[in-house]
Design brief:
mainly alpha, 3-stranded mixed sheet, 9% strand
């Protein structure tokens, strides 16, 4: 974009000063990087937000509660289980196949796991 702007400036099409197109493109790129991150951070943030949203939507219904002192007389039924949650720590654990097929899409499962590693 900068090269095209500079060539148009040299051809007296834009009315800009030499170097102005390059400065404008660099400013746009810097603003984009400030908003979306550098070195792949944007996709990692999207993946983390995607999985957080899944947990927020399904945390109490699709994760079977697990804790150290279980009541043998009462076992809550968890329909469409995707994993377990530790009621003592608040940690969530996914079943691998369900994570890959239902939770990750549209993201790659390996990239998703790496985002939390």
């Amino acid at each position: 974009m900068a090269a095209a702007g500079e060539m148009a400036t040299q051809a007296d099409i834009t009315g800009w000063q030499a170097g102005q197109a390059t400065t404008a493109v660099m400013t746009c790129l810097d603003n984009w990087l400030d908003n979306y991150g550098r070195d792949g951070e944007h996709e990692q943030r999207q993946i983390i937000k995607h999985i957080q949203t899944f947990i927020e939507q399904h945390g109490s219904s699709r994760f079977e509660p697990r804790h150290s002192h279980r009541c043998p007389d009462f076992e809550p039924k968890t329909s469409n289980r995707v994993g377990y949650r530790n009621t003592n720590t608040g940690d969530y654990y996914f079943l691998m196949n369900t994570f890959e097929k239902e939770v990750c899409p549209p993201f790659n499962a390996k990239k998703s796991l790496a985002s939390f590693g």
